[in-house]
């Protein structure tokens, strides 16, 4: 049995409180000054003031970890990533800088389709090495749980190659990975003239097979202009729901096609992006339990001034989360601290709201709020310590990684000297 007494937390952000967080409660971080934690094996067994925790009998025989006044928070839960892709698309980045749009590049066969071609050529071993390196990067930036989507295989063999790799990575390295089947990312080239047939193949064959094999928990559709229609997305996500895959939706990134409403209709776990929603959508989302997962890395990387209406969503009472959307086309970052900086400066979220939107709310959207997203007795000892004078400085210092220690399930997986 391993025991840790973790002290020296100048601010311990417990995130104790209602789940999910809406409205004003989003900014409530449950802060304990000069806090401490007692960890037994993978779980938190006590959390409170240093004086109280140090006085516990179990604390005496624990290994001591004094964080020397750092700010400590639950490890970030990154609820939207496309972890498995072979290489960057820096060539398209440069084309966009010279004026070609993301959608125009996609229409001319680049974009997602160029990553699909590359992933089909890549060996599982090479994809695995790249993914492991990235996972160490996530951990180094304070992330302890992430969601990861397939969707760059788009034929049966390569979708399975991706999902099996995710399953192996979940078992072999410390971070928890929740898998999402995104067979409906785009229509693959071999189905270009038979789009309906591809939708039927997904709904009738691939989805049931993925669910039966236990290869994914969630099902996602890129439902947008240039991708799948609302009717197609409904067909696919209902098929997923019927075999136990919980829906998530890429919605309203480029156009308002009705995807946000579909997320509500299907009681999706999450509607992601939402840059193009309107006031009616905001009201409807606020009345639902769909988590609005905002991805400000996309607008930043695409050089698009329009961000999702975070302020209006929060003020209306919607459940808001933040994620990296780590992917080679629209958001090549694995840094949640950078996403927090963008959320604050570009979407006018407060630092406290951004932290809750990066921990407890995404844990709820992944249905892991019983184990992750807050520092409470009984939950995983998943935490990140930052070398800052107060939590506001986490987003304030942008483009810097001030995470100096990450613990996952009671094991230190990243540590750097101040
Ligand atoms: O979330 N919009 C669809 N999927 C990704 C982009 C994937 C890519 O361009 O490779 C996104 O932005
Ligand atoms: Fe995405």
Main traits of this protein?
alpha/beta; Urease, subunit C, domain 1; TIM Barrel; binds N-(iminomethyl)-L-glutamic acid
Q: What is the rounded Rg?
A: 21 Å
**Percent helix among the residues?**
25-40%
CATH superfamily of the largest domain: Metal-dependent hydrolases
Largest sheet: 8 strands, parallel
DSSP strand tally: 15
| Beta-strand fraction estimate | 15-25%
- The structural domain count equals 2
* CATH A-level architecture of the largest domain: Alpha-Beta Barrel
Instruction: Identify the bound ligands.
Output: N-(iminomethyl)-L-glutamic acid, fe (iii) ion
Alpha-carbon distance between the two ends: 29 Å
Would you give the CATH topology of the largest domain? TIM Barrel
What is the count of DSSP helices, taking H or I runs of 4+ residues?
Answer: 17
**Low-pLDDT ranges:** none
Could you say which structural class the secondary elements and strand pairing correspond to? Answer: alpha/beta
Kindly report the average pLDDT value: 98
| Main sheet strand line-up | 5-6-7-8-9-10-11-12
Q: What's the CATH C level of the largest domain? A: Alpha Beta
What is the approximate shape? globular
Structural commentary:
The protein is α/β, with parallel strands linked by helices. It has helices at about 50-55, 55-60, 90-95, 100-105, 110-120, 125-140, 155-170, 195-210, 230-240, 260-265, 280-285, 295-300, 310-315, 335-345, 350-355, 360-365, 395; strands at about 5-15, 30-40, 45-50, 65-75, 75-80, 145-150, 175-185, 220-225, 245-250, 270-275, 290-295, 320, 385, 405-410, 410-415. Helix 11 links the parallel strand 10 and strand 11 (about 290-295). The model has no long low-confidence stretch (mean pLDDT about 100). Bound molecules: N-(iminomethyl)-L-glutamic acid and fe (iii) ion (FE). Fe (iii) ion (FE) binds near residues 80, 82, 250, 325 and 327.
């Amino acid at each position: 049995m391993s025991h840790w007494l973790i002290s020296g937390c100048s601010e311990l952000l417990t995130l104790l409180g209602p789940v999910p967080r809406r409205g004003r409660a989003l900014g409530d971080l449950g802060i304990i000054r000069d806090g401490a934690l007692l960890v037994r094996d993978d779980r938190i067994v006590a959390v409170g003031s240093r004086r109280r925790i140090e006085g516990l009998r179990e604390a005496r025989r624990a290994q001591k970890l004094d964080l020397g006044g750092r700010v400590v928070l639950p490890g970030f839960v990154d609820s939207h990533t496309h972890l498995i892709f072979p290489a960057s698309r820096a060539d398209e980045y440069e084309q966009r800088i010279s004026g070609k749009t993301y959608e125009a590049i996609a229409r001319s066969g680049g974009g997602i389709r160029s990553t699909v071609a590359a992933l089909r050529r890549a060996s599982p071993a090479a994809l695995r090495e790249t993914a492991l390196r990235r996972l160490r990067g996530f951990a180094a930036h304070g992330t302890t749980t992430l969601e990861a989507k397939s969707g760059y295989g788009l034929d049966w063999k390569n979708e399975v190659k991706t999902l099996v790799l995710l399953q192996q990575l979940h078992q072999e390295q410390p971070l928890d990975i929740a898998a999402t089947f995104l067979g409906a990312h785009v229509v693959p080239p071999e189905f270009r003239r038979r789009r309906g047939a591809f939708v039927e193949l997904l709904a009738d064959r691939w989805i049931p097979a993925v669910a039966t094999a236990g290869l994914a928990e969630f099902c996602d559709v890129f439902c947008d202009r240039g991708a799948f229609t609302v009717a197609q997305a409904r067909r696919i996500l209902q098929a997923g729901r019927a075999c136990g895959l919980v829906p998530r939706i890429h919605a309203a990134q480029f156009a308002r096609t009705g995807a946000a409403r579909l997320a509500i209709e299907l009681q999706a776990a999450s509607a992601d992006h939402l840059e193009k929603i309107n006031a009616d959508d905001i009201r409807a989302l606020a009345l639902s339990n769909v988590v609005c997962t905002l991805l400000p890395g996309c607008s930043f990387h695409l050089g698009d001034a329009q961000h999702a209406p975070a302020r209006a969503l929060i003020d209306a009472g919607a459940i808001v989360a933040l994620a990296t959307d780590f992917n080679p086309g629209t958001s090549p970052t694995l840094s949640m601290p950078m996403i927090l900086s963008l959320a604050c400066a570009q979407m006018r979220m407060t630092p406290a709201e951004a932290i809750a939107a990066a921990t407890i709310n995404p844990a709820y959207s992944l249905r892991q709020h019983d184990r992750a997203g807050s520092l409470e007795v009984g939950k995983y000892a998943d935490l990140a310590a930052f070398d800052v004078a107060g939590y506001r400085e986490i987003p304030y210092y942008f483009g810097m990684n001030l995470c100096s220690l990450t613990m996952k399930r009671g094991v230190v997986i990243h540590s750097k000297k101040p």
